[in-house]
# Entry
Amino acid sequence: MKRALPWLSCLAIAVAQGACAADEEAPPVRDCSVRVWHRPASAQASVEIVGEWDGFRRPGTTPTPRTDGWRAALFDVPPGEYRYAVIEDGVWLADRERATTATYEGREVSWVEVPDCGGPSMTVDAVDSAVDGTATVRATFFAGRADPSAVDPASVQATWRDGAPAVAQVDPRTGQIRVEAGGLRRGKHTLTLRAKDVRGREAEPVFATVWIEAERFEPRDAIIYQVVVDRYRGADGPLAPPRTPSARAGGRLVGVTRALESGEITALGANTIWLSPLYKNPEGEFAGKDGRLYSSYHGYWPVDPQAIDERFATPDELDAFVRVAHDRGVRVLFDVVPNHVHDQHTYLREHPEWFERRSCVCGVGSCDWATYIKDCWFAPYLPDLDWQDPAIARRVTQDLRWWMDRWDGDGLRIDAVPMVPRSATRRILADVRARHAHPGSSPFVIGENFTGPGGYSLLRYDLGPHGLDGSFHFPLMWTLREVVAAEQKGLAEVEQSFRAGEAEWKDSGATMGLMIGNHDVARFSSTSAGQDGGDAWEPAPQPVSELVYAKQRLALGYVLTMPGASVVYYGDEVGLAGRGDPDCRRVMPGDAELSAAQLATREFTRKVGTARACVHALRRGGLRTLAAGPEHLVYAREMTDAKDAADAPALVVTARRPRGPIDVPLAGLPQGEWVEVISGRRVTLSGETARFEPGAFSAEVWLPVASPCAPR
# Structure
């Protein structure tokens, strides 16, 4: 559970944590009973609980009413996986207090895995760390229920990921384990805890994540740099274009590692890297819907769930990349594919019965995307995984978690979210969180739900406390293309699109990924130049017009200054051209190939990205619109609980084709001298309004001179 209700008993916590404390004298003992809480719409409602533990027998168990309006039922069932539902006045409901769901007879119901409580277990209770390199990890050892035995202090092992041991303090009476460390360098440190009880029975190891950083990371702090590994860099630097747009270019992860080491990526303010899938993919080329041959350079055709494609990286190179990233405070998101596999996948050899069902190919003939999105295949050689099959759900979840466990990942990007049932993403999330989330650290899981303009409600479905931490904000991306690239609507539409999204997923707790493009759409610069259409196998020319790059900078300005997680697709920082797939995935040019306008665009991205990384308000503050019209949009980013100069607001002034000066109300903004982070210009703000005269297609970011993030 992501939150605990104040009246939740030890047994209620048991299913989430697999354990509970017994009393102060005996060691804490596991308890795997399933307790279901439900608050009906009215006191008169008829409520029953039905579950797989008794074949969904009707009538089900009647939960006990409580004086606070809740009803509760306790089930003591053998270890295993169970689906169950709450039926209120005849309507089947999933348990709102359970994170995981599954499908039963076409309905979304709740799903719970009851562990075997005969042996011991451990949980990580909290991790506290400080920027001075000190940290404290607290965990609890729970005795097995069948024969409760305390932890053996001599068996407790605490080991850092590099193999170095740590000293653990153990209290057998309470099961408390405490590790204190000092001298930790900046970045991530993962501690593995192992322990046995006095009878020699071992608990499953647990991971504790320690980040040494200035402040605890939140998803809204993220500046994500998206990399298609095959197209970014080779082992020796910039790549030559592939022989065909869909062939392999030879990019390797070591090229990304070197870009991290050189500071090329972190200069953008990036603190998170999203890597294209690194799964082993098939050799050769395969026919696309257009009859042309495509390779698996992109990584989305897995043939082995737990193997690295050595055309991208060796295991040692991936370990090195993760270490280099973490040493620089950069988080790593692995791209995972739960919807489909390639027909050479090991699953088909091991379990041919999983793939007896055949379906149509998405977008071919009468197989339209809207009707068949849950069932259609991307291609005849890319069969879908049926998440309604418990065996498939179990195996795929375990294999996806491997990317986090083995490679010390910090989160996931989940591919093709609308093509799998919501139960799939919820199960993946619950599994990853159970292993890697604890007070002090939590993985960031963001989903790809590709929508068209205005598709806000479609994104909402998979968000929420038990759902994705965020989705990519496709509706805002389309708005930026309409407003900035094509000039079809006024700048006020940008604010309206942002507000529409905020209203739709209000209270979900989600952090949306803001972007101007990704690997599935034409490049923003080509859209601005009117060269995004036509055959995607015919490369769009690299624009030469300064106007195109000014539009690129304005759009990136919004992505880097509005609330959410900023996402920069590799090459967008230099206005790289490209029609649709595969042209939008062309190789990343080296510096020698960049024009002055491209270099200026990268410099803009660096300055604004660096400001966002530094300025608290640009990451965590609210957005207050000060002036909006067809040709201008001005807003403040402000902290509601500002404490000192570090929490000072930021002022963002954007314009398209301004018809004159813009008068901006200053109510609530500090009076005095301000500085613009890109140009270094200074102004003194005083009185009720200030007059700004931005240039065409410009984005200015102003900070009070007193801000520690202001340029000096």
Residues 1-17, 20-24 have pLDDT under 50 and may be disordered. Residues 596-614 form the longest helix (19 residues).
